[in-house]
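Moderator note: this is an archived Q&A kept for reference. The question asked for a predicted structure of one protein chain; the sequence and the answer are reproduced below.
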Amino acid sequence: MAEKVMVAMSGGVDSSVSAALLKEEGYDVTGITIKLWPKYIDPVEDSSGCCSLAAVEDARRVAQMLDIPYYVLNMQKDFQEQVIDKFANEYILGRTPNPCIECNRSIKFGSLLEKAINLGMDYVATGHYARIVRDGDRSRLFRGKDVDKDQSYALYALDQAALERTLFPVGEYRKEEIRDLAHQYGLKIANKPDSQEICFIPDNNYKEFLTTHAGASQTPGDIVDTQGNVLGRHTGIFNYTVGQRKGLGLAVGEPLYVVDINARDNTIVVGKNLDVFSSEFTVADFNWVAGSAPSKDSFDAQVMIRYNAQPRPARITVLTDGTVRIEFDQAQRAITPGQSAVVYQGDEVLGGGIIWERSLGN
């Protein structure tokens, strides 16, 4: 009997080809689109977002062409609580979150995977550009073959239980190969552009979203320099991020950048460009893909501090409280609390967590 796989279909080319490849390989494939956007977001018909009416219809048409069952699953409540609320709260606390990582952790490879298992599925599959290598009873996570499209950074939170039940069919291909396959399969979405924005903020105006839908208050406060001298006023800490230069409203005769965001006293700290660089920081909520930390408390690896950043050499030290200290060989610009730091050994993802606190001025 063929193994059953539920393919999360967004209406895009990657998930559509994933379904086609798996069917061709002999899996018993079911397509599903998860409805995530809350009711207060209007899914306009021509929107390219993953939950728009157009996206659902694209996914439905692909499923019909492939002759596979297709369903739409409502996960609005889970998405609101696990992704949107956390996203808003992080900004209010002065941190800059990555909601895609939390969506992968709690929705696609959390709630959806649980639902799939309850329905008797053997696997969940997505169109992520990453690779899973089975090594005995252990699953290892690697970069996708296409380094320009690699999405392994956003998947570091997957544990062994999730990886064991997950397939990434497009991870062994380059993007242009996937589009060629879509043409070969006769899929009309072969040339559909990739979605870039945060999925639940289609216009990418997250500041308006936070005030309108998340109840964030634009409470003004002081902008201070690194010595604590007041230079001006800000319009609300969630309007700023580490490394920002534009929009500060300061006229001091030299460029200044956001160095730190302090939610406790509602201040924005600014300094020179050099002040934005640092080399040491701590990471909380760390997930080791293997299920446990390496046997060595300290080792050398490469670290990415944001999506599409270049991995840089660093020293990794596992602290007694489970947090991780990372020391780059060379100072990096705008290490941002709330973003994720992901540790690689070559192409393999060892794990990652949330940037919590960085040492300034080093």
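Archived answer notes: The mean pLDDT is 91.
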